[in-house]
C-alpha cells in the first residue's frame, strides 16, 4: 500500500521498479512481497503516463506473471481474507480494470471483502493516476478527516507531483 508515491517520484519505469523493490524489502523481504510492490508501482506509473487499461494489463501480466483475466463477479463468492500479495494485487488491479472511474474502482475493490483496505488502496491509487486524481468531492471529504499535519503532507505531495489525466 505504501509504494504508490514511488510511481510518481521517478521518470522511468526502470527507476520506479528499482526503488519499489528497495522500499518493499524493508518490510516485505520476500520475493512475492517485492513482486507485488513492483507490480503496483508499475501499474500506477503506467496509468499516470497515459497507458490504456489494456496496456497496463498486458505489462503487469507479462512482467509479473499475474493472471488478470478473471472477472470480479466470478471470484467474489469465493474470495476470502488473504493479505498476501498474490491474494490482493491481482484482485485490486482487476477492480481498477473493470472500473469506470475512481469511485467505481474503490467500490469494486471493497466489494470483494477480505483485506479490503489494501485492495481499495491499490485500486484507488491506480485509478487516481489513470483518471487524473481523486475526484473533488471525494478528495475534499477525505481531507476534512485529516489533521493539519497530514493535510499538509497531502498538499506538499500534490504540489510536487500534480495529478495528470491519463
Which features characterize this protein?
ADP-ribosylglycohydrolase fold, mainly alpha, 66% helix
Short description:
This protein is an all-alpha fold. The protein has 10 helices and no strands.
Question: Can you offer a commentary on this structure?
Answer:
This protein has 166 residues and is an all-alpha fold. The protein has one domain: ADP-ribosylation/Crystallin J1 (ADP-ribosylglycohydrolase fold). It is 66% helix and 0% strand. It has ten helices and no strands. The radius of gyration is 15 Å and the shape is globular. The two termini are 21 Å apart. The mean pLDDT is 92.
Reading off the top of the CATH hierarchy, the class is best stated as Mainly Alpha
Total beta-strand segments: 0
State the domain count. 1
Mean pLDDT: 92
Radius of gyration: 15 Å
Helix count from the secondary structure assignment:
10
Name the CATH architecture. Orthogonal Bundle
Task: Please outline the helices and strands.
Blueprint: H1 4-9, H2 13-24, H3 31-48, H4 53-64, H5 72-75, H6 89-98, H7 102-111, H8 116-131, H9 136-144, H10 148-160
Amino acid at each position: 500500500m505504501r509504494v504508490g508515491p514511488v510511481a510518481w517520484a521517478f521518470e522511468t519505469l526502470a527507476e520506479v521498479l528499482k526503488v519499489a523493490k528497495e522500499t518493499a524489502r524493508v518490510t516485505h523481504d520476500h520475493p512475492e512481497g517485492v513482486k507485488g510492490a513492483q507490480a503496483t508501482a508499475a501499474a500506477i506509473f503506467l496509468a499516470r503516463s497515459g497507458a490504456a487499461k489494456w496496456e497496463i494489463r498486458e505489462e503487469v501480466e507479462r512482467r509479473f506473471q499475474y493472471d488478470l483475466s478473471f472477472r470480479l463477479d466470478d471470484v467474489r463468492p469465493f474470495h476470502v481474507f488473504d493479505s498476501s500479495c498474490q491474494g490482493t494485487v491481482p484482485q485490486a488491479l482487476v477492480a481498477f480494470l473493470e472500473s469506470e472511474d475512481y469511485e467505481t474502482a474503490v467500490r469494486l475493490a471493497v466489494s470483494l471483502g477480505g483485506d479490503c483496505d489494501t485492495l481499495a488502496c491499490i485500486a484507488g491509487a491506480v485509478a487516481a493516476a489513470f483518471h487524473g486524481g481523486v475526484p473533488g468531492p471525494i478528495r475534499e471529504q477525505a481531507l476534512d478527516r485529516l489533521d493539519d499535519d497530514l493535510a499538509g503532507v497531502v498538499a506538499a505531495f500534490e504540489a510536487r507531483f500534480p495529478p495528470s489525466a491519463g
